[in-house]
Amino acid sequence: MNDLKIGTYTFSSRLILGTGKFGNTRTMIDAIRASGSQLVTVALRRFNPDQPEDDLFSALASIDGLTLMPNTSGASNAKEAVKAAHISRELSGSPFIKVEIHPNPQHLMPDPIETFEACRILASEDFLVMPYIPADPVLAKRLEDVGCASVMPLGSAIGSGQGLATIDMIRLIIRESNIPVIVDAGLRSPSEACAAMEVGCEAVLVNSAVAVAENPVAMASAFAEAVNAGRRAKAAGIMPRSGAAVATSPLTSFLRKTS
Amino acid sequence: MITITLNGDKHECREGSTVEDIIAMIGANSSKVAVIVNENIVPPEKRRNLELQDNDQVEILAFAGGG
């Protein structure tokens, strides 16, 4: 299978893992290893002297070949997101930035106008901009036009586990896009990740579904297999739907009485 | 003594304290945190010599888990 290409980076894994909500750092690291992910998201927070283990830098550095994609979580407008991106690049040295601007904590839906403005600025500053967006093909195209490295439409609300509620819109985005389309948010089970890959997503980003599973390490492995299966199925050419039954066995009439 | 705001809380520190001193004071590793003073990013090579002033706003940030 060919690699995922984002900017000048290539990844053999098409599963991007979020690092939030894990019970402890050890489990998170084991889950990343089990997932085979080479690109993981992190968030910027005030340093907490009472919980220095919150700092993931050392733990993540223990995994060879891992690239960090800081997010702009907490930003409620473009200005704050750009500021978070600058700080994150200073700290991580990574050009990746997941732009997420969701001003309403009740639904965490991304603000398309502020997201567009932040992406326009950050793309001009040579970030590899990966915006978390509503599943809107018009917005996705506009973000491609200003130089985003990918678009990441939501499957459903962050952390909701409601799956690929937007799959018809994601199909439209894929049809129009010349940059990787990555489903981000809302996935609950590996079958949904597989379905996202089957319709032509280049990768999926999963966090809660792995982190809050009873066994996050096993679930990370299951997601990796599902993503691979979906990718291979897409490449193999999925049969068209038919409105009518089409027999798989010969309907010869040798069992019938002949006159 | 001078008073700075560190990660949202008031702190007193001696005059002439540098950014590096403040990082050490809260027990952070300088290579694993970002530092912002009065909205400006302070890169690692400037932290040893940058002295803080009364009423400076200092943010010390690190990466945590996030999706």
Structural overview:
The complex is a heterodimer of chains A (259) and B (67). Chain A is α/β, with parallel strands linked by helices. In chain A, α7 (190-198) packs parallel to α9 (216-236). The mean pLDDT of chain A is 94. Helix content of chain A is 37%, strand content 16%. The radius of gyration of chain A is 21 Å and the shape is globular. Chain A has a single domain (4-236), classed as Aldolase class I (TIM Barrel), CATH 3.20.20.70. Chain A contains nine helices and ten strands. Chain B has one domain: Beta-grasp domain (Ubiquitin-like (UB roll)). Chain B has one helix and five strands. Chain B is globular and about 40 Å long. The mean pLDDT of chain B is 94. At the A-B interface, β4, α2 and α3 of A face β5 of B. β4 (39-46) of chain A pairs antiparallel with β5 (57-65) of chain B, so a sheet runs across the interface.
What's the CATH topology label of chain A?
A: TIM Barrel
Per the CATH scheme, the topology name of chain B is Ubiquitin-like (UB roll)
- Assigned CATH architecture of chain B: Roll
Oligomeric status of the shown chains? heterodimer
Low-confidence stretches of chain A: none
Find the CATH superfamily of chain B: Beta-grasp domain
Kindly estimate the percentage of residues of chain A that lie in beta strands according to DSSP. Answer: 15-25%
Q: How far apart, in Å, are the first and last alpha carbons of chain B?
A: 41 Å
CATH class of chain B: Alpha Beta
